[in-house]
Design goal:
- The protein is α/β, with parallel strands linked by helices.
- It is 35% helix and 24% strand.
- The protein starts with 16 loop residues before the first helix and ends with a strand.
């Protein structure tokens, strides 16, 4: 019997590190070639884009146009279309005006009857009106298709403030509403002094505690951010103290009731020192001196 010899088993080849690294390098080379090809194509498109963009920019510059103008033109066309559909300002209602010039307010509004109602900027209208010192607050509402409603709250004038020989109408916070002519006939309390406007409400609160005296006051002057001098219609001047002015004002009201002190021939009533009352006669009847000897001193006994 013939016995066939078997071939020896073939041992599998082991992958060497060298062959694995070679394959990895081949893959990198392949990817690099692909990337270079992609970039070559991409550069072409970039140059095409830049060329088109440059041409468009040159066109806009040459025709003196701009993206903003194009946008504005498109917006104007849209607003004209809305007007054709009936969205037009027909009514402008302003509520709350008592002292401001109503006719001038309507005339100066940034929106007028016949404008496209959707083109109106409510914030622009609001800011325009708030620039008017009469208005403390403003709200604006648009009601389609044809109405703009504006509600304002006016500042309330409380006094006339004199500074640097100019007259200003002020509110309760001392805010200047408007400048007045020197011959104004407005009937408001008159205050003078650097910071008299900021302290006017405090003074008016004091004066109003004695209505009979208040009605006779002509002008009040603020001194050193500390105290007030009050001058009456008949020319009598009262110097109120820095401390406890309410007590001094009440005492003056009592003296007027009991002694008619404001009706006497007196130029100045000085109440700045507690428990003392200094009276100064008019210059023509005084000793001809402006020093303290020209005063008479009354002891108020506990005042």
């Amino acid at each position: 019997m013939y016995i066939r010899k078997e071939d020896p088993p073939i041992k599998p080849q082991r992958k060497t590190r060298k062959s694995a690294g070679y394959q990895e390098n081949c893959e990198k080379i392949f990817l690099l070639r692909k990337l270079k090809k992609f970039l070559r194509v991409s550069y072409k498109y970039v140059w095409v884009f830049l060329a088109l963009f440059g041409a468009w920019s040159f066109y806009l510059w040459y025709t003196e146009d701009s993206v903003q103008q194009v946008s504005n033109n498109a917006a104007n066309d849209m607003y004209q279309t809305t007007k054709d559909l009936g969205f037009v300002v027909e009514y402008i209602n302003i509520n709350g005006i008592k002292n401001a010039n109503t006719k001038q307010i309507y005339t100066d509004l940034p929106i007028q009857q016949g404008d496209a109602i959707l083109a109106s900027s409510l914030d622009e209208i609001k800011q325009h009106l708030k620039a008017n010192n009469w208005f403390e607050s403003v709200t604006v509402k648009r009601t389609l298709p044809n109405t703009i409603t504006i509600n304002v709250v006016e500042r309330i004038p409380v006094a006339i403030w004199q500074k640097n020989h100019k007259l200003h109408l002020i509110d309760d916070a001392g805010f200047v509403i408007k400048q007045l002519p020197n011959n104004t006939t407005l009937n408001y309390p008159h205050v003078i002094g650097e910071d008299a406007n900021a302290n006017a409400v405090e003074l008016l609160s004091l004066l109003s505690t004695q209505p009979d005296l208040y009605n006779k006051v002509d002008v009040s002057t603020r001194f050193g951010n500390r105290r007030w001098d009050v001058k009456f219609n008949n020319g009598v001047e009262v110097k109120l103290p820095e401390k406890e002015p309410y007590k001094a004002w009440e005492k003056l009201a009592q003296l007027q009731q009991d002694e008619q002190i404001l009706n006497r021939n007196i130029a100045v009533i000085d109440m700045r020192i507690a428990d003392k009352l200094f009276l100064k006669l008019p210059e023509a009847e005084s000793l001809g001196s402006s020093n303290i000897s020209a005063f008479s001193v009354l002891d108020e006994g506990g005042y």
